[in-house]
Amino acid sequence: MPMKIRINDHQLIQWIQGLITKFQVFYPLQDANSGVVHIQKATGSLNSDAILKPVSGVPKTSIKTFFMPQPEVIARFSIAAQDAEAFVLKEPGTALQTQVLLNIRPCDARSVALNSMPYAEDPYFQKMLKRTVIIGRPCDETCSTCFCELVGGSPHGTEGMDLVILKTEDGLALEVLTQKGADFLKQNPCAESAGLQPTPQQQGGQELPIVAREMQKKDLLALYNASFWPQIAEACINCGACTFLCPTCYCFDIQDEVAGTKGVRLRYWDSCMFPLFTLHASGHNPRGQKVQRVRNRFMHKFKYFPDRFGPVSCVGCGRCVKDCPVNIDIREVISLMQAV
Amino acid sequence: MFDQKNPYLPYSVIIDDIVVETEDKSLKTFKLVIEDEGIRQNWNHTPGQFAMLSVPGKGEAAIGIASSPTEKGYLLFTVSRIGSLTTALHQLPKGARIGVRGPLGNGFPVNSEFKGKNIVVIAGGYAFTTLRATIVYLLAHRQDYGKITLIYGARTPGMLLYRNELKDWEQSGLVECHITVDREAPGWNGIVGFVPAVTERVAPAPENSVAVVCGPPIMIKFTMPALEKTGWKDEQIYLSLENRMKCGLGVCGHCNVGPVYVCKDGPVFTRARVKGLPVEF
Hints:
The complex is a heterodimer. Chain A has twelve helices and ten strands. The longest helix of chain A has 20 residues. Chain A starts with a strand and ends with a helix. Chain B has two domains: 94 residues, Elongation Factor Tu (Ef-tu), domain 3; 123 residues, Rossmann fold, CATH 3.40.50. Chain B contains eight helices and 15 strands. At the A-B interface, strand 4, helix 7, strand 9 and helix 10 of A face strand 4, helix 2, strand 6 and strand 13 of B.
């Protein structure tokens, strides 16, 4: 049973054009004026060049917004006294249609697989996962800020993708990676894709990246009490940009909002960089100091997460390196932690 | 995790009764009845577990369950009026509808490690709530445990919680009670002094015993040496941590103490476990 087929440029564009008529399709596009790459919704005027040859550079924001919408309605309720069901929280009941993420980089696709670990039993995340088809694209060029291999990824990795568009010596190929990808292709065939089957994926036995194994072996309190944390935290202004741009930062806050007699319970992205994140109602704050918060972000990614789930919670996209206003470089933090 | 298909949706409950517990009126006990009969009858929890109380429009807060699972048909939560959610809750009248999401976390191991042992309950201030649940549970299964000792202190006699029950326990002789207040007060004939000092005086024996200690950090800090003096080991001492929480399911990231989530891995930990963690609580 074939797992991939060759397709030509025309077939790919035709396929995508077909998808756009049925689904919401998003792909990275470079803004003509600023040069910044954003993941944008595909419209009728498709940028064929940007589809055939993906724009270089990491998109400004990650794809986590497609799995953890900002904000996300998790319940609705009424506060009208005469309403028999006032103050009863109900599922939002929003119908979710299939969304397609096209030309997704291996680092971003992998972040979805990593986030699926803590969110394994989260009904909202799982619904978003189910509705989303990720069509990945290997990276031809790396950037000066990215480091996927250091944290267990690869510019040609396919973890988290359902389908992948490959460049071969004589054109393009479409490979099926998951059953979801196969089912999607069956309903939305591309060229001769009808009988394609998913490529058998390595299951479970995948070896953890060196950095994860190293961190797992390290003593928790030795890392926590290491002397370099104040030095790393010193420049930090606790703006939280790193956590919002990070594809694998997944913390959230829950808030209620009421307008008139209708209310919603929302979940928002939150950041462990903010003092309010841990503030007790009593005024006590277990991470009231900046150094404690900065340490928590890195300890979570490289010690707490691997201890719980295996891999490190970082895909090496480099967004935090690129956009940190005070130039904190996560790669330097990793090497300091490795040296403990 | 509890058996709700969507663990973010609370069960609807009605406030069936409200008792003002303390003289300053800052603590009220809410008796809640789950509206759905099936869920109400199937409800079960372990003393020490907590739930998210939900006032739709205001939000949620994690509160320890003050009733024992042996008290059927209702749930008790003793709530201090301290933040925006608890203030909103304190303003609600009897009959109001709110939400309960739970039970969450791990309670005290009353059906495993505690079985057959002497139980020493040490509490300070309003941290007594889940320990009330524990004592009621132990008394409902009295034959399964050894001696039960309670050391409980509050600032003033009027700040003691569950005063009628304390009297009952003492008079029944089923619990050895050492109830103390911080300083002399008119009409108070009981013990005067801080919980650590009383603990040192009572000096509960560590043999075949476990201790559960809940209270303000300062009380816990000075109670530990009092226990150590009489030979208590860290593995015998159970603490209940609290941190700011949002999901209560180990996902949202707010309550972590190093690698553990207070909501999912706790809130109950042995002192031995807590000692291996960063001090982020």
